[in-house]
Amino acid sequence: MNKPLKITKIGNSAGIILPKEVLAHLGREVGDEINLVLKPGGIELVSGDPDFEEQMAAARKVMAERKRALRELAK
What we know:
Blueprint: E1 8-10, E2 13-15, H1 20-26, E3 35-39, E4 42-46, H2 50-65, H3 67-73
Antiparallel strand pairs: 1-2, 3-4
């Protein structure tokens, strides 16, 4: 999708209105939160917390490597 979005004044800030297709793609609706990630060439809108996703990936890796020890600890 390549659609120009207009920047509008909202109080002392500025904002854009996201089309419903974008919200649907992100799996979000009005009132939900999304994260804005600054990138060298622009921005990225993500539906989850990127730091949390990185932490969970690291945790999954450790859990896979230490599966036997974790099973023993769970007894």
